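Dig into what follows:
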Amino acid sequence: MFFDDERSNRLRPQILTELVGEYMNDAERAKLYGLPETTRIRQRAKIVSPDNLKIGEHCWIGEGAVLDASGGLEIGEHTSIGLNTLVFTHSSWLANMTLQNHSGSDLIERKPVRIGKGCFIGGLVVIMAGVTIGDFATVQPNSVVAKDVPARSLVAGNPARVFQRYDEEYIASEVERVRTENERRRALAEERGDAPSWGAPAGEFTPES
C-alpha cells in the first residue's frame, strides 16, 4: 500500500534510487547519485537531501554512512568518510521538548556542516550540526564532534578534543616512511610469487624477512 500525498511522492524517488543503488558497485552508485565520477560510495550509505550536498573529487564514503545534507553539507576533495559515520545538519531537539515533533514542524533547526579537503573521518563518528572541520584533519573512530576542528589536527573522544597537530614536514616524513616500507614489502612478495597488482601486500613482513 502506497500513499499518494505530497510527502510520499517527494520521498519516493530517493527511496527507489537507494534501492537500485544496492545492486551497483561504488563508482556506479556515485554516478547514480549525481556525485563526481571520482567518488566512491559504498553499500547502504545514505544521503539525505542530496541537492544540498557539495562534494569534491576523489572522496570515499563508507558502508552505512548517513550524510544529512538537509541543512547544507560541504565535503572537500580527497576526503574519506568512515563506515557507519553519521553527519547531522539538523536537530529536532526543541520539537521533541515541546511535543511538536510532527512532520513540517517549524521547530526543526538546521545548521550547515563543512568538512575540509584531505580529511580522514574514521568509522562510527558522529558529527553534529553546525560543525566545521578544517583541511587535512583526522577524526579518530568512535568520536563525537560537537565543535569546530582545527586544520591539520587529530581529534578523538566524546566530545572530541585535539590530541595532535601536524605540519607538512611531518606528513612528508610519513609519506616517505610508508612508501619505503611498501616498496620493501612488494619486493619480498615478488620473491614469493604473490605480489599484489597495487598497494602493499598483506601479511607479516618482519625486517628479517
About this structure: The mean pLDDT is 92. The chain has two domains: 48-165, 167-209. The two ends are 64 Å apart (CA to CA).
